[in-house]
Amino acid sequence: xxxxxxxxxxxxxxxxxxxxxxxxxxxxxxxxxxxxxxxxxxxxxxxxxxxxxxxxxxxxxxxxxxxxxxxxxxxxxxxxxxxxxxxxxxxxxxxxxxxxxxxxxxxxxxxxxxxxxxxxxxxxxxxxxxxxxxxxxxxxxxxxxxxxxxxxxxxxxxxxxxxxxxxxxxxxxxxxxxxxxxxxxxxxxxxxxxxxxxxxxxxxxxxxxxxxxxxxxxxxxxxxxxxxxxxxxxxxxxxxxxxxxxxxxxxxxxxxxxxxxxxxxxxxxxxxxxxxxxxxxxxxxxxxxxxxxxxxxxxxxxxxxxxxxxxxxxxxxxxxxxxxxxxxxxxxxxxxxxxxxxxxxxxxxxxxxxxxxxxxxxxxxxxxxxxxxxxxxxxxxxxxxxxxxxxxxxxxxxxxxxxxxxxxxxxxxxxxxxxxxxx
Length: 423
Description:
By secondary structure, the protein is an all-alpha fold.
């Protein structure tokens, strides 16, 4: 009997120890949703603060889309000038239709609010992407960095921020196993911005690598949605592909290779503290393979830029918009990697606090630079932003409204001659 007891004593101890460990596990792991509960209110405050800072900026090129929306809402059709179904370069027909559907009294304000909603949607999607407790702080950090990044805020009024928000929402739905939702969101994003086809290809590749079974329903939904948008555009405009045409007179650079240098030069002119972003991204990208959700976001952004570089086409600053969530994810992963390298006896939150101070300082200085246009080292940062509406444009517009009939057509010799009075 004693021999029997001695032989089984280690087993009994192992069972007891395992049971005790199981009872302690829930208390040592983060509660589900705790990161979101903490980060959510802080992200909302950041969103509201930056929204108030940038909401009154009025990009000049956005008013081309506003005119389409105004004519559409008034029943004149999808035209810039009545009777002329010509699509101007750089105008997204779906974005103009969304603006016209609401028919607000203040189109510029509504356009800015729609852009802010796109930024909020994209940040919420990044926050929701990680499904494990270890990845949730990384998702929260990526959401905060995306909110703080100035590019999307500088393009309020354009469709760029809404497009990025829809793309990130599509990725989040894919990662959560909602294929039909992914298909519908990406179809909408593709009609809004045809470059979404790159992201669709990334998700198809990810599904193949993960061994997901082929599902004909979401594929059919996406295909039908994109074809419906294409047929609508073909039946509406003389040249629906004009949206994809690029006017080289107001681009950032003649190609993506030169554009990347100009992009980061303008960013660092806003604040030298933005140098911390690529520094954090280096260790982040080396460990992105350990986070499948992050791999999709980073792969999309890098492939998007690679396609631009291969095509060797002129680029706008917002052509690099997919790099915003890409760098946000890589920088957040870099902060997590640094935190893991801090000895256990030291407070690991120091890495997070330091990153928050640096990125928060960069965002704060960027806001001051934009609002004052005199802070910082110069005005190179203006390369990131579409040209704003100038006071002289408002004056000429007011004069035309008072002294010409609504049906009058004004011809301009150059794109910017309206403000100079050369009519």
